[in-house]
Specification:
By secondary structure, this protein is α+β, with helices and mostly antiparallel strands. It contains 9 helices and 6 strands; from the N terminus they run ααβββαββαααααβα.
Length: about 190
Amino acid sequence: MDLTKTYRYLFPCVYEGYDKFLKTILRNLIKNKKVINCYIDDVEYERRIPYSIFVCIEKSQTSIDAVEALSSTKHQAYIDHYEYDDIIMLVLAVPDKYKKSYNNFFLSRYSRMYTIGDLNKFFKLSDGSYIKAYYVLSKNSELEEEIKEKYGLDEDIELDELDELLNMKKECFNYLKIFNKKELEEGI
């Protein structure tokens, strides 16, 4: 399964945007390979929650303990959690500071999501290099040239963004399950 844009572009502001307690919990889940992916919604969830992300976690004692730590302390990022078979879905709030980033994400304006300082904080590795998301979110000129060359575009064309538009089928948990169910019911 490919990682969603929610995981690659939006999750870092939640990971970095709160206190050390949340960061430690999320780091341990990532380190132990418990975070499966992140989504901007779950179409089967009972309500719409703006400015939140749904962190899909493999169910294990480590995950259960992490979720319990967040819910029992009523951490400011914690909204809810629930289980599906062998996973736990952890619903976390996007920090107020990054609500504009969330809005830009929804509009597929990835290069407007973060400041240069945020990009360096979220996507710079300890060796000084950057993860791929940095180049998309910073609208890196070298990546832009690669894309133009790959698709045979004129050099003088300026690309609005360096990644495709947000695809709700990929960014919403259970979207395809509901979509396929409707197809079956309607005989499409």
